[in-house]
Every structure is written in structure tokens, then in C-alpha cells.
């Protein structure tokens, strides 16, 4: 057994996180640069220290999850969501059950709330946002972002829903109130059911084919018939029918029924 395989086994026993479900080359590269930075020369010694050092464990979790996000990422897709997808969903159900899965540092669920605010009062908007990384969730709850994260935010939204604090921008309380954050592991934890919309973007590329297959099946079961899965711009599902999906638009998949 290689030292990486031993590391994978020990991490799974300690945390329940199965690194074998992530693409090995990418994960190994990311974690090797972390342990070298910390002065270790192999995965076994790295784990020994991680086992007793909470701070190092948190840093490991932060590194293995991919916290690169921004508001309205790939703006044209958000336009499709606003003008085509949401009007149909809201016609069927005026109070949508929305889940932002693998939400990272919160830009995505807050973007969702802003888009929904164009269709209904914020008092009717409720979004569940989950991530595996507690550090990312803490940042999401703080809701303070550098200007570069807002590059694609429409000007009127920036004016309405952000307060500038020095070189940072803070999400306004009325938007913050619409989002509930909690920890969730897409590969292990139970999925809530009856969602109208699930948004999970730019995370599936890091999983193995086997893991992706499992997650897409779970997303399908978690959606109502007619509900929609919105994925990232490098994450097209090539055989949507096997998950009971049909293409509603590029990167939007509607559950049949």
C-alpha cells in the first residue's frame, strides 16, 4: 500500500471523507503542496500530525475542498435562470425549495437570492446552502467579499444588495436572512427531498466518474418532477436520461415527470 493509499484510509476512518472518490492526480498534487509547505516529506507523517492538530486538520479540509467562487459566475447562465427557468418554476410553486449544494464561501446562494428578488419579495425567498468545509461556511456567514468577487454582478444589484466597507463589500442583511448554511457531505450524507431547484456548479469536475454518477442519482431523487438541476459550465451531463433528466437549456436539467 502506498503512503497516499494509507492516508486515504486513515482520513476516511477519522472524518468519514473518502478521498478515493476524488480524482487522485489532482487531489494528490493539491495535498502534496500543502504538506511540503508545512515541512512534511510524506503523507504518513502529515496524517500523524493532522490527527492531533485541529488547526492542521482544518487547513487540510480547506485545501481539499475547492473554494474558488464569485457572484453571478458565467453571467449568461444566470440570465437563463432568471428569464426562463424561474418563471416556469414559480408558476408551479410560488414558494420554491432551493438548495445551493457545495456552496463554498456563499457567493452562489446569495446570487440566487438576488435573482429571486426580481420575481418575488425577499420574505418569500428561502435557500438552503451546504458545504463540506466549515471554514468556507464561516466565511459565507460573514458575507464580506473582495471587489473581484463582484465582477459579474449587475450594477443595480451591486448598489441594492451590497454595502461597501473599505475595499470590501458586505452583503445586506435582507439578502443574508434568506440563506441558511449547514455542513453537508455530498458523498455521504442524506439528501433532503422535494426541491424545485438544486444548484451545484464547478465541483463535480473534481470527482471520479463513480462519485459523479452517485451524486447525480441523488440529485435526481432530491428533485420534484419538473424540478431543475443547474450545473457548472464544464459539467455537462452527457447522458441525462439515465438520471431521469432532460435538457431544459445548456447546463440546466429538468427532472422528468
TrEMBL record:
Domain of life: Bacteria
Stretches of the chain forming a coiled coil according to its record: none
E.C. numbers: 2.1.1.80
Classification via InterPro entries: Bact_Chemotaxis_MeTrfase, CheR_C, CheR_MeTrfase, CheR_N, CheR_N_sf, SAM-dependent_MTases_sf
Matching SUPFAM superfamilies: Chemotaxis receptor methyltransferase CheR, N-terminal domain, S-adenosyl-L-methionine-dependent methyltransferases
Catalytic activity annotation: L-glutamyl-[protein] + S-adenosyl-L-methionine = [protein]-L-glutamate 5-O-methyl ester + S-adenosyl-L-homocysteine
Keywords for the protein's UniProt record, in alphabetical order: Methyltransferase, S-adenosyl-L-methionine, Transferase
Residues covered by the CheR-type methyltransferase domain: 1-257
PANTHER family assigned to the protein according to its UniProt record, in alphabetical order: CHEMOTAXIS PROTEIN METHYLTRANSFERASE
Name the record gives this protein: protein-glutamate O-methyltransferase
Originating organism: Kurthia gibsonii
Lineage: Bacteria, Bacillati, Bacillota, Bacilli, Bacillales
Amino acid at each position: 500500500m502506498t503512503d497516499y493509499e494509507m492516508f486515504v484510509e486513515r482520513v476516511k476512518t477519522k472524518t468519514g471523507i473518502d478521498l478515493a472518490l476524488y480524482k487522485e492526480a489532482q487531489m494528490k498534487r493539491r495535498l502534496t503542496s500543502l504538506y511540503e509547505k508545512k515541512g512534511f516529506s510524506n503523507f504518513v507523517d502529515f496524517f500523524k500530525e493532522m490527527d492531533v492538530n485541529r488547526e492542521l486538520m482544518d487547513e487540510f479540509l480547506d485545501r481539499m475542498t475547492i473554494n474558488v467562487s464569485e457572484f453571478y459566475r458565467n453571467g449568461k447562465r444566470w440570465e437563463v435562470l432568471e428569464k426562463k427557468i424561474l418563471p416556469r418554476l414559480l408558476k408551479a410553486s410560488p414558494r420554491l425549495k432551493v438548495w445551493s449544494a457545495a456552496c463554498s464561501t456563499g457567493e452562489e446562494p446569495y446570487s440566487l437570492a438576488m435573482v429571486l428578488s426580481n420575481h418575488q419579495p425577499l420574505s418569500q425567498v428561502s435557500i438552503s446552502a451546504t458545504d463540506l468545509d466549515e471554514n468556507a461556511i464561516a466565511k459565507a456567514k460573514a458575507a464580506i467579499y473582495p471587489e473581484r468577487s463582484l465582477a459579474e454582478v449587475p450594477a443595480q444589484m451591486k448598489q441594492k444588495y451590497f454595502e461597501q466597507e473599505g475595499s470590501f463589500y458586505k452583503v445586506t442583511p435582507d439578502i443574508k436572512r434568506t440563506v441558511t448554511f449547514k455542513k453537508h457531505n455530498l458523498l455521504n450524507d442524506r439528501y433532503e427531498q422535494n426541491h424545485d431547484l438544486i444548484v451545484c456548479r464547478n465541483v463535480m469536475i473534481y470527482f471520479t466518474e463513480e462519485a459523479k454518477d452517485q451524486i447525480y442519482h441523488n440529485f435526481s431523487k432530491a428533485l420534484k418532477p419538473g424540478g431543475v438541476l443547474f450545473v457548472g459550465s464544464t459539467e455537462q451531463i452527457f447522458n441525462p436520461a439515465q438520471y431521469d433528466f432532460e435538457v431544459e437549456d445548456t447546463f440546466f436539467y429538468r427532472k422528468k415527470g
